[in-house]
Amino acid sequence: MKLKGVILDLFNTEILKKYCLKNNQTLYIRQELLMTVNIKKYDSEIMVKTERRKRTVEDRDVWHHVFDLPTEKIIQKIINRRVIDTLDYAISSGKESGVYRATSKSGYYAVKIYRITDSSFRNLPYYIFAEERFLQVKKKWHQLVFAWALREYKNLTIMHESSVPVPRPVMVLKNILIEEFLGEDGVAYPILQKYNGIIDVKLWNDIINSVKTIYYKANMVHGDLSEYNIIIGKNNMHYIIDVSQAVKKEHPAAKELLLRDLKTIGKFFIKKGVKVNIEETVKIFEKDGVNP
Ligand SMILES: Nc1ncnc2c1ncn2[C@@H]1O[C@H](COP(=O)(O)OP(=O)(O)OP(=O)(O)O)[C@@H](O)[C@H]1O
Ligand SMILES: [Mg+2]
């Protein structure tokens, strides 16, 4: 079998990436096929010999934590479109999404993959899975997840265009969102909650300025602002992330969410010993009808 690229499983990525870089080959990632990959150079093309092997129980556990087949196909599409070359490793793995570092010709990207296989679906017996009624539910569920990813992409775009310090959105395809990688030398910057550097009034004021920019320029409210959704980079520069749930200023819950955002961040700074006045900060927004 002659292939232009190399098909491999995710866990060999680092070794094979090096190999492909050395041999100027495109790297394809495929996890659904479990195989032993034998690579040989032949007439300037890479020969890949694959042997299917039986799945073990441990494999099954691992697969559950990686990607489902539809997601894998989307990753493949993105790689084929040359947006990214490889998915490197998980920066974070949550219940609803995982964030991965990816490498492209022009540097690194952060790839947020929303899970489309709901864990409650997974526990259903196989005969329900095959039922038409269930397939409809599954389809609707997938579409909801796609809409959620698109929503984050759109919110990021509005905020980015309004000069809010958010990662630059690159593309969205179904449940996969690609954005600017926030980090240095390939290492992701920490979130505020894990940040060991200076946490002071200046940082508080900077963050409040971003909340103002989101409110007055982007006409939105983040809605889930906390020490978990702020990344701190070089020179104490902050970035706001995770904006899928952000709402328009006119949204009936906007004011309430804005107050909650300010209080959550305020409490974090107070816990860190920084003297901040949450009530005073809330007053800034009062002329727009936001009451403490
Ligand atoms: N652009 C980025 N560059 C570097 N790291 C990032 C980027 N975006 C997100 N991260 C990392 O990934 C983590 C999760 O991202 P995010 O907050 O957007 O997802 P989430 O929906 O909260 O995920 P979870 O399901 O874990 O709650 C962040 O805490 C941060 O560490
Ligand atoms: Mg988050």
Describe this protein's structure.
With 292 residues, this protein is an alpha+beta fold. It has 3 domains: 66 residues, no CATH class; 106 residues, Phosphorylase Kinase, domain 1; 100 residues, Transferase(Phosphotransferase) domain 1 (Transferase(Phosphotransferase), domain 1), CATH 1.10.510. The strands form 6 sheets. It has a 5-stranded antiparallel sheet, with helices on both faces. β11 and β12 form a beta hairpin. α7 runs antiparallel to α8. The N terminus is likely disordered. It binds adenosine-5'-triphosphate and magnesium ion. Magnesium ion (MG) binds next to loops. The site of adenosine-5'-triphosphate has 21 residues, from β6, β7, β8 and β10.
The biggest sheet amounts to: 5 strands, antiparallel
Instruction: List the ligand species.
Output: adenosine-5'-triphosphate, magnesium ion
How many helices? The count is 9
Q: Into which percent range does the helicity of residues fall?
A: 25-40%
CATH class of the largest domain: Alpha Beta
Helix and strand run: EEHEEEHHEEEHHHEEEEHEEEEHH
User: Order of strands across the biggest sheet?
Assistant: 6-7-8-10-9
Mean pLDDT: 81
Shape: globular
What percent strand?
Answer: 15-25%
CATH architecture of the largest domain: 2-Layer Sandwich
CATH topology of the largest domain: Phosphorylase Kinase, domain 1
Distance between the termini: 68 Å
